[in-house]
Amino acid sequence: MMVFAHIPKPLLITLSSLLIAMSCLVIWRSAKGFELASDYLGRKLPAGIKGATLNAIASSMPEFLTTMFFLFYLHDADGFAGGLGVSSGSALFNLLIIPAGAIIVVTSLSGKPTMKLKRPVLLREGLFLILAQVLFIVLLIDGELKGMEGGLLLLFYLAYLLLLFLISRSKDGSEPGFRASGIPKRSLLINSASLDIVPLVLNGRKLNAGRAWLLLIVSTLVMSAGTWLLVLGTESFGAATGIPLIFVAVVLSAAATSVPDTIISIRDARKANYDDAISNALGSNIFDIAFALGFPVLLYAVFNKDPIVLEGDLLEFTQEVWVFLLLATVAAVFIMLLGRKLRRLNAVLLLLIYGLFLLFIGTQVGGSGQVGGLLRDFLTGLAEMIGRLH
């Protein structure tokens, strides 16, 4: 049910845009609490592990919450398609824009022409991400997602976490001497009005494990409010412009939910935590696919008994976007493995792939045309080929 059904379209477009902008602000403000809490809780984890687990899960909460809201608020295939659009669009943003941004920040601010990554970290995250995408495309090919398939995605994520746990046990902790400096003590009213979650929770007190978990929980609640605004804004914008929900979700909503990933990864890069910066982006994608989609599918099946069914153009476009994501992942991992260090050229190549994605979306919204039609045929054919693994 549309919340703003009787508002004139020009005004509705404006209000929807404001809602999406407000959601970005709320999500951005809550990201600071996530970053501080995950830094503290993951202070003993080896480089690359923290980014792929605590940082990735915390910063991917917007995608998870948005998928839940889309599915249970709209309560139909279009609603879940919105969640699929957010997950796939956010995955592309994390995969291409965030590493490119990290490379540009490091090479511009540090004066270093390159950024060095540990190849095992990149190969580990890249391989699991590719496997997660192939698994999801195989499950999606018939257009039905049942509770059992949601469970399979969750089992995949548990296997990924188990591997990271085994890796972390075989390495020494990387506690660098965590410091939470400069946390001011201000009035409750000022902190609440500015959504400044860190001083609101800590109130000038020293950070410890209990307060770190409390900070993480409060940040999640604030982010929930932001993602709810995002769902309302996305639905209203799509209705006002006549653009299908999944198209709006795959670009605008996806970029909005990637705000925490971007902030955490860029700050990790500025601290020279390059492995965490990249593994956070890739680990977030694994969480988005295996948990942020798997858990809502399983939960929906428990409460509704029926599978989620995607049909016709909606199914076809969803498959095309996910195959594009798979190809982009393979290309991005290859680009980041080129040479021993990452340079601005690597960043430019990643940005070009994202530009190609926006071009593809544009051709589908405005009418396929010859180029869009050829790209659609190629992606659909590849989806069918992968689907034969079912």
Overall number of strands: 4
Terminal Cα span: 36 Å
> Can you give the mean pLDDT?
79
Please give the largest β-sheet: 2 strands, antiparallel
Instruction: Compute the CA-based radius of gyration.
Output: 20 Å
CATH architecture of the domain at 47-170 and 242-388: Up-down Bundle
Helix content: over 70%
Output the CATH homologous superfamily of the domain at 47-170 and 242-388. NCX, central ion-binding region
Quote the CATH topology of the domain at 47-170 and 242-388.
Answer: A middle domain of Talin 1
CATH class of the domain at 47-170 and 242-388: Mainly Alpha
Structure description:
With 390 residues, this protein is mainly alpha-helical. The chain has a domain at 47-170 and 242-388: NCX, central ion-binding region (A middle domain of Talin 1, Up-down Bundle). 77% of the residues lie in helices and 2% in strands. The protein has helices at 9-41, 49-59, 61-74, 77-109, 119-140, 147-169, 188-193, 197-202, 209-241, 245-257, 259-270, 274-290, 294-304, 312-337, 344-365, 369-387; strands at 115-116, 144-145, 308-309, 341-342. Strands 1-4 form a two-stranded antiparallel ribbon. Helix 4 (77-109) packs antiparallel against helix 12 and helix 15 (344-365) packs across helix 16 (369-387). The longest helix is centred in the N-terminal third of the chain and has 33 residues, at 9-41.
